[in-house]
Amino acid sequence: MTGLIDAFGREITYLRVSVTDKCNLRCIYCMPEEGVPPKSHSDILRIEEFARIARIASQLGITHVRLTGGEPLVRKGILTLVHLLSEIPGIYDISMTTNGMLLAGFASHLRKSGLNRVNVSLDTLKPERFKEITRCGDLDQVLDGLKAAEDVGLSPVRINTVVLNGVNRDEVKDLAMLTLDHPWAVRFIEFMPFWDNGWRFGDSYVTPISEIREEIVLLGAYPVESDEKCSEGKKGTESGPAGYMKLPGARGSIGFISMKDHICSGCNRLRLTADGFLLPCLLSDISVDLRTPLREGAADDVIEELIRKAASLKPESGYAAKAMASSAGNNLSLSKIGG
Ligand code: SAM
Ligand code: SF4
């Protein structure tokens, strides 16, 4: 059986799964204060349905599954899902993106269930500011979660930091310095102004990633291939959008992520929404419904064809398409798409 190769020759090996659209935080750049109207419970895929799609996708060459959301750790049955994924022979990398609030309690269970590593979102090291950005979070809980993740070997731990002018722009250096003592990859992310986040203060909040990179270079950082351990021994499955640097003597590395970089040429991913739609591209409004056929009793080969179809619908460059038609395209917040 041939793997998933799209119309532009890209091999699709990575599936990002949004396991819920619910979240226990309300980050200012992601969700409105009142939250987003939750999807009906019956619309959200069951744990076994996620696992079935992943199993069929693995037969097509998907080797890496990332669980995200919303907040994946508020999804009931998340440990069962991790376990089911870990039993799929072709999937050898299972990771999760989490806000870290519940991570301390979950870390060892996640590890035992088969999770390989975590990305933890952390935008500030100041407790009061953390509360302001997340509207209800507790920084200490996240720091405990990071420690627990490191202790149980959910590594390499990556930290995702969205940089916002006038909010946490002044903490870039402090966050980068975390890599001196910890073997973490701190990744700075340029704010993406999705319309649906209810936070429409405009471009003045965007800090270009080039500006962050220049600041890090001034600290003496030098380029490295990747956050090494991530690609080592894992056949480089995550062909991610981050370039990496290291501070002299640092244990960890620093990454830079911007939607505006030319990242589409290496894109190897499909996204599955919590309600069972496959999205070929983060930035396009195309989706392929898997839930309806799943629930109508479709055989594996029907689901397989739909996964192939989603791969075949990947645009050459979602960013270019969006730039050409700025009012079109997918403008759901990342909490719905599965960031
Ligand atoms: N709740 C989990 C978390 O926060 O890690 C997973 C879902 S969240 C949508 C995934 C990532 O998307 C987080 O690292 C978050 O910082 C990032 N994100 C959300 N909205 C964003 C935006 N408008 N621009 C850039 N990154 C964003
Ligand atoms: Fe929730 Fe993550 Fe969005 Fe923050 S970024 S509101 S933690 S989904």
Describe this structure in words.
The structure is a single chain. With 339 residues, this protein is of the alpha/beta class. 31% of the residues lie in helices and 16% in strands. It is built from eleven helices and twelve strands. It has a twelve-stranded mixed beta sheet with strand order 7-8-9-6-5-4-3-2-1-10-11-12. Helix 3 links the parallel strand 3 and strand 4. It starts with 13 loop residues before the first strand and ends with a helix. About 5% of the residues have low confidence.
Counting DSSP H or I runs of 4 or more residues, the number of helices is: 11
Low-confidence stretches: 229-239, 326-330
Task: Give the strand content.
Answer: 15-25%
**Hetero compounds:** S-adenosylmethionine, iron/sulfur cluster
Major β-sheet profile: 12 strands, mixed
Order of helices and strands: EHEHEHEHHEHEHEEEEEEHHHH
Mean pLDDT: 88
Principal-axes shape call: globular
Helix content: 25-40%
How are the strands ordered across the major sheet? Answer: 7-8-9-6-5-4-3-2-1-10-11-12
